[in-house]
Amino acid sequence: MTLRSLLRWTAPLLLAASLHAHAETTLRIGFQKSASLLTLQKSSGSLEKKLAPLGVSVKWVEFPAGPQLLEGLNVGAVDVGFVGEAPPIFAQAAGARFVYIGFDPAAPEAEALVVPKDSVVKTVADLKGKKVALNKGSNVHYLLVKALEKQGLKITDIQPVYLPPADARAAFERGAVDAWVIWDPFLAAVEQQSSARLLADGRGLVNNYAYYLAERSFAEKQPHVIQALFEDTQAQATWLKANLKAAAAVIAPLQGLPVEVVEKSLSRYQFGVKPLTAAVAAEQQKIADTFHALGLIPKPIRVADALPGNTKLAEAAR
Q1: Strands (E) located in 124-258
Q2: 3-106+209-316 and 108-201: same fold?
Q3: Do residues 49 and 72 make contact, with C-beta atoms less than 8 angstroms apart?
Q4: Do residues 113 and 191 lie in contact, with contact meaning Cβ atoms separated by under 8 Å?
Q5: Strand pairing category for 159-162 and 131-134
Q6: Which intervals hold domain Solute-binding protein family 3/N-terminal (predicted)?
Q7: In what order do the strands lie in the sheet with 197-201?
Q8: Bond prior to 67 in cis (omega within 30° of 0)
Q9: Class of 108-201 in CATH
Q10: How far is CA 251 from CA 179, 180, 239, 273, in A?
């Protein structure tokens, strides 16, 4: 075979390979180790198998908490993320470009205010003047506001100490703070391992929804990728809910927690992504309005401005 005939034979193959490489998409998912369902998906490789036929690879990017994840989404480090109620509001107020693409059902028991077992603090009202640790801008920020409000108190009546979960637990256990407002599985861990006493969880105060967010241009251009993501998420959620013990056994070592702690945490969540409804968006708007009234965000925002305008994208969540 001459060089010319060899090139004539291989050129179409090289072109096809080049086009395939160019067409391949990477879905970069921002997640927190505490997000048990995503941790399970990452471990199982189920999403990679689901997306491979579409020419889509997956990159998992870990963040310590929701606010940091939103920063990653805003600077283009990730395409999709999963966070609690409050981070999107702070991010939208800061001008971040993202859209809400789905949500997990309410889980009010999966976040709570806790104190050391021998604390003199017996009720939320007793927190006046006390130091309370929390991750600023996270879902528990709203829980703290509502728990205090129920007792006629404002966040200015306490001393907020803003710390990420690992640092907050250390401060809590050495007595540097009087209380900690935190979410699962960190909540279940401190309850079981440190005998922390629960002052109040989210029941009757907050919904504690969790949201799937996407960088706006990615969401608009790749609705088929988001649809495949949600199909896999729903399949893994169905398995998890039917197999709590087995799921906990897989997730526990990845989160660095005992199996019984993870199982308790899983029991307090209702997994399974759903399309955003008008009622859920309205609840999110209430949180945004509350944060603005308290001066926690500098300007009012409209949650509706961060809802998908892409019909295909809206259908993907269904």
Answers
A1: 131-134, 159-162, 179-183, 197-201, 210-215
A2: yes
A3: no
A4: no
A5: parallel
A6: 26-247
A7: 159-162, 131-134, 179-183, 111-115, 197-201
A8: no
A9: alpha beta
A10: 27, 24, 13, 19
The pLDDT tens digits along the chain (318 residues) read: 443 443 344 344 333 333 343 357 899 999 988 899 999 999 999 999 999 999 999 999 999 888 889 999 989 999 999 998 988 999 999 998 899 999 999 999 999 999 999 999 999 999 999 999 999 888 899 999 999 999 999 999 999 999 999 999 999 999 999 999 999 999 999 999 998 999 999 999 999 999 999 999 999 999 999 999 999 999 999 999 999 999 999 999 999 999 999 999 999 998 989 888 889 999 999 999 999 998 889 999 999 999 987 444 444 444
**No. of H helices and E strands in the chain?**
14, 10
Tell me the C-alpha distance between 315 and 35, whole Å. Answer: 24
Q: Could you give phi then psi for residue 150, rounded to 5 degrees?
A: -60, -25
CATH class, 3-106+209-316 region = alpha beta
Q: Where are the domains of the chain?
A: 3-106+209-316, 108-201
Q: How far apart are CA 61 and CA 236, in angstroms?
A: 19
Long-range (24+ apart) CB contacts under 8 A made by 21-27 are 23/55, 24/55, 24/56, 24/57, 25/54, 25/55, 25/56, 25/57, 25/222, 25/225, 26/56, 26/57, 26/58, 26/59, 27/51, 27/56, 27/57, 27/58, 27/59, 27/79, 27/80, 27/222, 27/225, 27/229
Name the token pair of 129: 């003047």
Question: What are the φ/ψ torsions at residue 299 (nearest 5 degrees)?
Answer: -150, 155
**64 three-state secondary structure:** coil
Residue carrying structure tokens 């941790």: 39
Beta-carbon contacts of 265 under 8 Å, excluding residues fewer than 6 positions away, are: 36, 110, 184, 185, 187, 188
